[in-house]
Design brief:
The complex is a heterodimer. By secondary structure, chain A is mainly alpha-helical. Chain A has 9 helices and no strands. Classes of the chains: A mainly alpha, B mainly alpha.
Chain lengths: ~220, ~300
């Protein structure tokens, strides 16, 4: 069976897996972004809190994903729970780090000016600092999403959702005629998804980066 | 901002520091840094722990002894717990007869061999791609490196297993392919980030192209190349856990045996060992990065 025949004969299954893969990565990325920016906002002003946040999230990223999932299974069981927790944790570092560096990089004169025209602390954060720090944060989100695409594939081993299941079905039938098709479909599917997400982020960047700081 | 600049950039920052100082544009510095760091290094699983300390050699000993002490304590606790855990025959089968040591040894071998090949491929290639003759190919290589990041490591590894057969060899080939691109991108970024006035000055005092490369460009790019070594090591320790799915051995054997047979002690032992190995390798690499950094590049600000 050629690859295209395989894809057309299994397109229902493949579409479901693709949709679940994309939705798992997307949802975890939303959580990771909210948490990450929050951690960044809370810690960026203090030298030690900022470096603690960066070091902790960096250490999490150093842990191989299969091992982290392995440690989560005894606690939360198999399935969606370890997948979501692992993906969210791995998605944090780029966002936290870029949020801290971005917020620290805001010209103090601008913040001072905002204070001078009577903006409250919240208004300064929401209307001056975060919009200025948004481009690096968005880069962090982009990097994290690409990474999560691959990690989500591994999470399928712990019965997680997504295209990783297609790859693991191929592994289970190594040597059979369809093994190559299954692995190829899963791998290409993830690569295409990653590129589509990347393109979407470029578009989001165009729409959301404040016009004043656009290059 | 100077403190932010010092902690954030790490290797990429030290390469671009002269330029940033020249423009004096702090904001641009931070953003630029981020984009570079973000895309080139974070994507590859690089952990910036040591870059926080990379500003100088004045690092407290607590910082450097904390990680080994923590790892020893964690391993000791796991070992004590594992000795007390009740194992049935299936669990015994997974860990008896030195299988744990074998897996650990295989894992270290997979990591060491693949890192070696990554370095001897990526660094010379990076140097070649930044020479004036091949410079036109650089954006192409960078685009390829970014595109390659989209392919999941697991899929790449298994495709190679199907192509080259089951075993450690396919796993190593897959790990090398997966890690070459980020290290290559790192090397290129490092060599390109060198202040052009420095290479121009070197040429101006009559240095040959080889002299400029070996006496000016490479020493200045050392921090970035070392960061590349660390990136490769950390990536490979992680990818090596996936070798088990292609019959390549390693600590992934214990983890997957634990998941498949639902034996939690085996799963936890395998996971803890993998985590400890990864953190230890990262610690070693960042220590090496700190010690091997040329003295002239330490900016005391």
């Amino acid at each position: 069976m050629s690859f295209w025949e395989y894809v057309s004969s299994r397109h229902d299954q493949l579409l479901t897996d693709t949709y679940q893969h994309a939705s798992a990565v997307f949802q975890c990325m939303v959580i990771a972004t909210l948490l990450g920016v929050l951690i960044g906002v809370v810690t960026y002003r203090s030298e030690w809190a900022g470096s603690l946040a960066t070091t902790t999230t960096a250490t999490i990223l150093t842990i191989p994903s299969l091992a982290l999932i392995g440690l989560l299974i005894p606690i939360v069981g198999l399935g969606v729970a370890p997948t979501v927790i692992a993906l969210t944790l791995y998605g944090l570092l780029p966002v936290v780090r870029n949020a801290i560096v971005g917020l620290r990089g805001v010209d103090p004169a601008l913040v001072d000016a905002a204070k001078g025209i009577g903006m409250s602390r919240t208004a300064r954060l929401l209307r001056v600092e975060l919009p200025l720090a948004w481009p690096p944060i968005l880069t962090g989100i982009r990097v994290a999403t690409q990474m999560l695409m691959g990690i989500a594939a591994i999470a399928a081993f712990a019965s997680g959702p997504g295209l990783g299941n297609e790859i693991f079905r191929g592994i289970a039938s190594l040597g059979s005629a369809n093994a190559l098709n299954q692995v190829l479909a899963g791998t290409l599917g993830i690569a295409v998804l990653a590129l589509l997400f990347d393109a979407a982020y470029v578009l989001i960047g165009r729409l959301t980066i404040s016009r004043g700081i656009r290059a | 901002m100077s403190s932010g600049g010092e902690r954030g950039p790490g290797p990429a920052g030290s390469g671009s520091r002269p330029r940033a100082h020249r423009t004096g544009d702090h904001e641009g510095f931070a953003l630029r840094d981020n984009v570079e760091m973000g895309q080139r290094e974070l994507a590859s699983g690089e952990a910036p722990t040591p870059s926080a300390a990379a500003g100088g050699r004045r690092i407290s000993w607590q910082k450097w002894t904390f990680m080994p002490a923590f790892l020893v304590a964690a391993l000791l606790a796991t070992w004590l717990w594992f000795r007390g855990a009740r194992l049935d025959s299936i669990a015994h089968q997974a860990v008896d007869n030195g299988k744990v040591w074998l897996a650990l040894r295989q894992h270290i071998q997979l990591t060491a061999i693949s890192t070696f090949f990554v370095l001897i491929i990526a660094i010379p290639l990076g140097i070649a791609l930044t020479r004036s003759r091949l410079r036109r190919a650089t954006p192409f290589a960078m685009a390829l490196a970014n595109l390659g990041q989209a392919v999941p490591a697991l899929g790449l590894l298994i495709l190679l297993v199907i192509w080259l057969g089951i075993g450690a060899r396919s796993a190593i080939v897959g790990m090398v392919i997966y890690a070459v691109l980020p290290v290559l991108a790192n090397t290129i970024a490092g060599l390109r980030g060198i202040d052009p006035t420095l290479t121009e000055a070197a040429r101006g005092i009559g240095m040959s192209p080889t002299g400029v490369l070996s006496k000016v460009e490479l020493p200045l790019a050392v921090p970035l190349i070392l960061a590349g070594v660390r990136t490769a090591l950390v990536l490979n320790v992680g990818t090596a856990t996936l070798a088990t799915f292609g019959g390549g051995g390693g600590l992934g054997d214990l983890i997957s045996a634990g998941i498949v047979t639902q034996r939690m002690p085996v799963l936890i032992l395998g996971s803890v060992l993998t985590v400890a190995l990864a953190l230890f390798v990262e610690w070693l690499a960042s220590l090496a990065e700190l010690l091997l950094r040329p003295r002239g590049l330490e900016v005391a600000s």
